[in-house]
């Protein structure tokens, strides 16, 4: 199993996907992978999300994870569907224990120093900063990164194609997450692929 550090290095942007039509899963994943973004976060925000993870996982080159994982039950369901990594908006001890015990790569959300310290208590050093812009943006992350030299981040929430580069220029930022690559319901796969291509350029 590849670890979370490796997954964070595979592409500069992790598309955060809200998908409700299973028929869209494969063409969407194919477009994103073809555009150079192989790491895909499917949020558990739609009833079909688990089925969509299973479909996307069949796409060659795609590394499909589950987002919006809130508790051990979500974790178990995501793993059963074939998720290869887990993202959560926040960090609870209950989820951290279950995720670490499962062995699946885990990227928990943090928004402050106490969250990072709680993660470090569990041996975690890779975090999603969420919501990145609303919780203070780059100045906040710079301030947080200073005392936690071993921590590396995937800021997500409010980041766009235009603002991704300034985040990615920071040594403590390994990748960013964002929903701008795909809007639920759209089916212009060529357009999605060209957005992915733009995002994949470092
Ligand atoms: O669903 C989750 O688990 C989340 O944590 C939220 C998403 O990561 C953000 O909603 C993406 O942010 P935007 O790119 O600003 O849309």
Automatic annotation (TrEMBL):
<comment type="subunit">
    <text>Homotrimer.</text>
</comment>
<dbReference type="InterPro" id="IPR013785">
    <property type="entry name" value="Aldolase_TIM"/>
</dbReference>
<dbReference type="InterPro" id="IPR000887">
    <property type="entry name" value="Aldlse_KDPG_KHG"/>
</dbReference>
<keyword id="KW-0119">Carbohydrate metabolism</keyword>
<keyword id="KW-0456">Lyase</keyword>
<dbReference type="InterPro" id="IPR031337">
    <property type="entry name" value="KDPG/KHG_AS_1"/>
</dbReference>
<protein>
    <recommendedName>
        <fullName>2-dehydro-3-deoxy-phosphogluconate aldolase</fullName>
        <ecNumber>4.1.2.14</ecNumber>
    </recommendedName>
</protein>
<comment type="similarity">
    <text>Belongs to the KHG/KDPG aldolase family.</text>
</comment>
<dbReference type="InterPro" id="IPR031338">
    <property type="entry name" value="KDPG/KHG_AS_2"/>
</dbReference>
<keyword id="KW-0704">Schiff base</keyword>
<dbReference type="GO" id="GO:0008675">
    <property type="term" value="F:2-dehydro-3-deoxy-phosphogluconate aldolase activity"/>
</dbReference>
<dbReference type="Pfam" id="PF01081">
    <property type="entry name" value="Aldolase"/>
</dbReference>
<comment type="pathway">
    <text>Carbohydrate acid metabolism; 2-dehydro-3-deoxy-D-gluconate degradation; D-glyceraldehyde 3-phosphate and pyruvate from 2-dehydro-3-deoxy-D-gluconate: step 2/2.</text>
</comment>
């Amino acid at each position: 199993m590849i670890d979370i550090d490796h997954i964070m290095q595979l592409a500069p942007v992790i598309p955060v996907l809200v998908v409700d039509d299973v028929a869209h899963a494969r063409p969407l994943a194919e477009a994103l992978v073809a555009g150079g973004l192989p790491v895909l976060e499917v949020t558990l925000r739609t009833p079909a999300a688990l089925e969509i993870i299973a479909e996307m996982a069949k796409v060659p080159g795609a590394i499909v994870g589950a987002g919006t994982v809130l508790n051990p039950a979500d974790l178990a369901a995501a793993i059963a569907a074939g998720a290869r990594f887990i993202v959560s908006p926040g960090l609870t001890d209950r989820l951290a224990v279950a995720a670490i015990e499962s062995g699946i790569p885990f990227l928990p959300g943090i928004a402050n120093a106490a969250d990072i310290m709680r993660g470090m208590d569990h041996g975690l050093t890779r975090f999603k900063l969420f919501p990145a812009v609303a919780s203070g943006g780059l100045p906040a992350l710079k301030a947080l990164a200073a005392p936690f030299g071993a921590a590396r981040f995937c800021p997500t929430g409010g980041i766009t194609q235009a603002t991704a580069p300034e985040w990615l220029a920071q040594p403590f930022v390994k990748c960013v997450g964002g929903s701008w690559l795909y809007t639920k319901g759209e089916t212009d796969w060529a357009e999605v692929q060209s957005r992915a291509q733009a995002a994949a350029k470092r």
